[in-house]
Write a structure and sequence with these properties.
This protein has 224 residues and is of the alpha+beta class. It is built from 4 helices and 17 strands.
Length: 224
Amino acid sequence: MIHWLRTHVFGHIWLKIVSILIALLLWWAVAHDQPAEIALSVPIEFYNTPEHLEISSERIQRAEIRVQGPARILRQMTNADIDAVIDLAGAHVGEHTFDLTPKQIRHLPHNVNIVQVVPSQIRLDLDRSASKVVDVTPRVIGTFAAGYRLGDVEVNPAKITIVGPQSRLNNIDAAITDPVDATGLVGRGTFTTQAFVGDPLVQQLNPEPIHVTVSTTKTKPGEK
């Protein structure tokens, strides 16, 4: 019995005492950690979007999450630590209001509680996904050489396919190229540029460079 006590109870007694002291200090630090409150601004994530539907709201709000918990934990938290999510399953075309409550907040650390979520609701417009073929309109600028004027302008490709919410596509008739500066051009020249749609929710399908070929012709006597 004495040998057992020496081996299992009193063996390495100082290491055991130090371990107990460390455990007591950690318990004391956790038990006496003062509660605190912070606000985190996080993006709102959407999932389970129905097939062939798109969000047509141009501005998506961020959520401000006010949380309360041990100061030690809150000091280490960042905006990337939690998510505000909204489930779009079952939604259809049109306007929808979604509640944003603590139930929609994920990845919250242990011992941290949500005090407030702002906004408490958000409204989204959902529209059908669509595509459309539109003309590419070249934009040529610059001052031509004396005795020359702008002649033919060719665009390749002359049309592009754009994709996005149906209602947005209905308002777009053409894409416009970035300005092509043909200053001083004599004869014929080809410039590489990009097409601009102008709606942040509409994008080109398979975007590619646009080649604008500009020709100049001699002005006739008396022609400006």
